[in-house]
Amino acid sequence: MGGSERYSGGCHCGGVRYVFSTPFPPEQWSVRRCTCSYCTRFGAAYTSGPDSRLEVTVQDPSLATDYEFGTKTAKFFRCNRCGVMIFARSRIEGSDYAVLNVNTLDDGGLPLSTGDTDFDAETLEDRLARRQTNWIPDVTIRFANT
Question: Of 33, 49, 55, 119, whose CB is crowded by the most CB atoms within 10 A?
């Protein structure tokens, strides 16, 4: 992906790290707080982008936990050691799509504006189509010690 900026981040303890690559500067990112009961408890705010990439490195497989609820169409990835929820991913037609919790970026000083978003009224078909169109389409999760 040419012309992309790279942003690093991860969980609190450092057991899970990532690089987010996107052609858009932070002031153009769409950042939204999901108002579901799970995301509200974490205070998560997400960004994504159809031309973006997320490369995740997990130091030890025992640190990785996926949590799903409700429609079970998204898995929320968190570190077992420190408990930080880093991203959510959805498998659609054999491919993973993800949204990144911007609160896990190393650079907390990025010019990001956030708005609340309620997805409760979406049909399952609309939800998956939105994710396939708007979420990060290039997701790699690597386990360093395997």
Answer: 49
Tally the domains of the chain. 1
Six-digit token string for 111:
């010019």
- Domain that residue 17 falls in: 5-143
Q: Which two tokens stand for residue 69?
A: 């609820």
pLDDT one-digit tens code per residue, 71-85: 888 999 999 999 999
19 CB-near residues (< 8 Å, 6+ apart): 6, 7, 8, 53, 54, 55
How many C-beta atoms lie closer than 10 Å to residue 114's C-beta? 15
Global pTM value: 0.85
Q: Which helix (H) or strand (E) holds 50?
A: none
